[in-house]
Amino acid sequence: MLFKTHVIISLFGGLLLMSYFNNSFLFLGMVLISTLIPDLDSFNSKIGKRFSSRVLTSFTKHRGIMHSLLFLIIIYLLLYFYFQILSFGFLIGYSVHLFCDLITKQGLRLFYPLKFKISGFIKTGGKMEGFLFLIFGIADLFLLIMKVTYFCFFFN
Questions:
Q1: Are residues 108 and 67 in contact, defined by beta-carbon separation less than 8 angstroms?
Q2: What pLDDT does residue 148 have?
Q3: Nearest in space to 33 (alpha carbons), one of 10, 56, 52
Q4: Chain-centre distance of CA 129, in angstroms?
């Protein structure tokens, strides 16, 4: 999926869950940052262009290990033991990214290093992805309005 779709869908998940955390804005920020991390290994991604991906691409291939449950679990556990406050936000954002890419026609080797690939039906940048972007964009606006209204009502 495209950068904007990953962000808008992860924002939805982050907005739904942020009230369960003491530092909800830190949680939401980590969700949004971590949804971009899997694409660091691609020169074609928006984040890969901004940060030097040359080191990563010399060791990995796009939609390889960084798009796997193995990588997700390793990084989550490291964060959990050293920066627990960030770990769940990472888990949500990264998982949403993997799920979004999983339902595309290109699919993922989710259980890397196994060769087994799971593919979906959505064309990256296609009409269905545009539709998902629109639906989640509307849902995000709704959640933002609800959260602001709740905040103003109870803290005024």
A1: yes
A2: 86
A3: 10
A4: 15
- pLDDT grade for 101, boundaries at 50, 70 and 90: very high
Pair of tokens at residue 96: 């949403």
Distance CA 38, CA 35 (A): 7
Closest by Cα among 100, 140, 134, 121 to 6: 100
3-state secondary structure of 122: strand
**C-alpha span between 77 and 130 (Å, rounded):** 34
- Residues in the chain, overall count: 156
Task: Look up residue 156 and give its two tokens.
Answer: 């005024």
Dist. CA 124–CA 63, nearest whole Å: 14
Q: Taking the C-alpha atoms of 75, 51, 125 and 35 in order, what is their torsion angle to the nearest 10 degrees?
A: 30
What's residue 40's pLDDT?
83
pLDDT at 17 > cutoff 70 = yes
Please compute, for residue 138, the number of CA atoms within 13 A of its CA located in the half-sphere on the CB side.
Answer: 5
CA dist., res. 91 & res. 17, Å (int): 12
Q: Are the C-beta atoms of residues 58 and 100 closer than 8 Å to each other? A: no
Report whether 27 contacts 14 (CB < 8 A): yes
**pLDDT-derived band at 107, boundaries 50, 70, 90:** very high
User: Is the overall model pTM greater than 0.85, yes or no?
Assistant: yes
